[in-house]
Task: inverse folding
């Protein structure tokens, strides 16, 4: 209850202060004695005349590239782009080289076959991202990753085994 009363009291003081400051501003204009003082109070100081900025518009010969985007080549041969925005017209010079497209290839993914499921690991900006899916629930991207990892993990027949591994294979066969 005390909090409510204190809040109402503070609000009343704020309103009273606002009303007294607006009435005190109007009072000196009525009490000004000399005509020069009246003119000084009523007329604000004049700033140098500045021309308002002209609203930029899209030139008549501009070709529409896409909705709200126009291309225009001026008399000097420069190509300008104009975009119509809710805040006005934006103008910039067209770049001679197109912006590089991001590569379609993402970070490498480590695929581990776990029998009836597959584990995927990918480096992300927030650390190592790991997820496990059943082979029956794989989406198209994950199927492509699995197929790519199977093709790269199978050794080709042209690669020969080192001599040490051949000796180890023969030892296993003898046992």
Result:
């Amino acid at each position: 209850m005390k909090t409510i009363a204190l809040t109402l009291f503070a609000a009343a003081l704020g309103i009273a202060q606002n009303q007294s400051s607006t009435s005190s501003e109007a009072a000196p204009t009525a009490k000004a004695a000399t005509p020069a003082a009246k003119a000084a109070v009523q007329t604000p100081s004049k700033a140098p005349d500045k021309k308002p900025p002209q609203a930029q518009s899209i030139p008549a010969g501009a070709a529409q590239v896409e909705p709200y985007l126009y291309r225009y080549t001026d008399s000097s041969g420069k190509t300008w782009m104009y975009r119509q925005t809710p805040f006005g017209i934006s103008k910039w010079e067209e770049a001679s080289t197109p912006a590089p497209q991001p590569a379609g290839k993402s970070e490498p993914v480590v695929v581990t076959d776990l029998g009836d499921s597959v584990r995927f690991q990918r480096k992300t900006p927030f650390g190592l991202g790991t997820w496990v899916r059943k082979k029956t629930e794989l989406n198209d991207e994950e199927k492509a990753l699995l197929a790519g990892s199977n093709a790269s993990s199978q050794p080709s027949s042209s690669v020969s085994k080192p001599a040490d591994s051949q000796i180890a294979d023969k030892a296993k066969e003898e046992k």
About this structure: Residues 63-93 form one domain. The chain has four helices and seven strands. Residues 78 and 159 are 59 Å apart (CA to CA).
